[in-house]
């Protein structure tokens, strides 16, 4: 289980302290998918960065499967089983896609394994394995490669920050299939930050964050009618 207790994160803006994440508490059970949504600028991505260790919390506690990881940096959290896909993936000039996937997996990957990972995010292995992670790749290509790196290794907790950003419709459908496969195995805790209706409706639970606070949280059955004005088993629930 992931336990987030009274998490607070503040920034200094021109000498004025402002809370970006304010006293947030929630849990994610083993095998559960929690989708976090809400208005832009509400603190969703900042919460994700605190969870994976890019930013340090000013108060609160993060416990993963009984292990207090609050003081861990990003490397130690990765070793503890936390995976993360950035909203804006970094580029690594001189490193090939094949090498990046092997590093993400923590071991050399066979070409067939790399091919499977790339196919899962809508990329052709023959076109990408030897390409460098540099400025020649589009934002959408970078996003898909970033998600493939997370899928390259099992994690206790995976956090995906707006996986739909910069993705074409065909690739998006393939990503949804990947998330459904991961979720069906029930061996990883999943947090997806998204505005996309189809992803939101995949959730076990949905949390709405606004102004750095949890405005509402509940099961899909409870939250979908509030968010979309329809029942979760509506025939049009799969529409985008």
UniProtKB/TrEMBL annotation:
Residues 2-236 form the ABC transporter domain. Keywords: ATP-binding, Nucleotide-binding. InterPro entries: AAA+_ATPase, ABC_transporter-like_ATP-bd, ABC_transporter-like_CS, Molybdenum_import_ModC, P-loop_NTPase. Transmembrane segments: none annotated. GO terms for molecular function: ATP binding; ATP hydrolysis activity. It comes from Dorea phocaeensis. The lineage of its organism: Bacteria, Bacillati, Bacillota, Clostridia, Lachnospirales. This is ATP-binding cassette domain-containing protein. PROSITE patterns: ABC_TRANSPORTER_1, ABC_TRANSPORTER_2.
């Amino acid at each position: 289980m992931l336990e987030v207790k009274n998490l607070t994160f503040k920034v200094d803006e021109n000498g004025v302290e402002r809370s970006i994440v304010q006293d947030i508490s929630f849990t994610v059970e083993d095998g559960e998918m929690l989708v976090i949504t809400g208005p832009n600028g509400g603190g969703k991505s900042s919460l994700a960065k605190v969870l994976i260790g890019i930013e340090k919390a000013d108060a609160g506690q993060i416990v993963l499967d009984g292990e207090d990881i609050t003081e861990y940096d990003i490397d130690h959290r990765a070793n503890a089983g936390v995976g993360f896909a950035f909203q804006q993936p970094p580029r690594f000039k001189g490193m090939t896609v094949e090498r990046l996937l092997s590093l993400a997996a923590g071991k050399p990957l066979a070409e067939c394994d790399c091919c499977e990972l790339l196919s899962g995010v809508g990329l052709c292995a023959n076109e990408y394995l030897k390409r460098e992670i540099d400025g020649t790749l589009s934002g959408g290509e970078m996003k898909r490669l970033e998600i493939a790196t997370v899928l390259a290794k099992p994690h206790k907790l995976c956090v995906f920050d707006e996986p739909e950003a910069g993705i074409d419709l065909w690739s998006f459908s393939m990503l949804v299939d990947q998330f459904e496969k991961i979720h069906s195995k029930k061996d990883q805790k999943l947090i997806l930050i998204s505005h996309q209706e189809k992803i939101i409706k995949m959730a076990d639970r949905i949390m709405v964050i606004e102004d750095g606070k949890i405005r509402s949280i509940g099961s899909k059955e409870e939250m979908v009618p509030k968010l979309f004005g329809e029942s979760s088993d509506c025939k049009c629930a799969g529409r985008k």
